[in-house]
Amino acid sequence: MDFLNSLYNLKGQVAVVIGGTGNLCGCMGIALAQAGAEVILVGRNPESAIEKLAAIDEIGGKSWFYQADVSKRSDLEDLLSEVVSRSGKVDILVNGAGLGSGTPFLEIDEEEYARLMDINFHSVFRACQIFGDYFIKRHEPSSIINMGSMAGKMPISGLFTYSAAKAAVHNLSKNLAREWAEHDIRVNTLVPGFFPSAQASQKGDETRALEILRHTPMSRFGMANELTGATLLLASNAASSFITGSEIVIDGGFSAMTI
């Protein structure tokens, strides 16, 4: 038991969770705090963070909220500066901001396309560049966990721009893993399948939901807490010291189905 505790012990670590006010990344943030990390939840709406901060406080964890718009580079630069000033350092970065759309491909205008690409991909690019530069100069083991999507691995109807953006996140993660391994920076992608709050399952379409369940061997949607095991694995220097450039798929078997 002592071995297992030490393997996933994040005491003394500082984790920045961008998108941490949402359901999935919020649950991941709570798990990181439960493992001992100080957690900074980053989002646009302070009210969305209240429940998550209370849950962390209830388990005796340490956390605080930082309001930022990930479409603004200056907000992310200020975020890093504030975290280092207030918490002393950053060890773990989770990039989980996301925005979905069911607009058919031929009907997406350039403004909507640019917005989707900016939130789902460019925000990850900005955060990785800003925090990656900090990690390299810090010379300590660090972990970047980018939130991918099943839509980034295979074509899923009705999610054209979101899929393209997430595919870019998957590719960026592998490139950074290759380039930054020598700096002891691990870059991995967490790939959720269909979860109740996932972008692809928010259409309110019962027929579509049934199609997803028929294509999922476990015959159900995922639950947010089912992402926490992989989160702690990738966040821990001890548990994932030789894991980088990986895509950890959590999809109930969805990607294993063909016909």
UniProtKB/TrEMBL annotation:
Q: Which residues form a coiled coil?
A: none
Task: Output the Gene3D superfamilies linked to this UniProt entry.
Answer: NAD(P)-binding Rossmann-like Domain (3.40.50.720)
Q: Which domain of life is it from?
A: Bacteria
One Pfam family it belongs to: adh_short_C2
Sorted alphabetically, the keyword list is: Oxidoreductase
GO MF annotations for this entry?
A: oxidoreductase activity, acting on the CH-OH group of donors, NAD or NADP as acceptor
**Annotated family:** Belongs to the short-chain dehydrogenases/reductases (SDR) family.
Name the PANTHER family for this protein: 3-OXOACYL-[ACYL-CARRIER-PROTEIN] REDUCTASE FABG (PTHR42760:SF115), SHORT-CHAIN DEHYDROGENASES/REDUCTASES FAMILY MEMBER (PTHR42760)
Give the protein name, as stated in the record: SDR family oxidoreductase
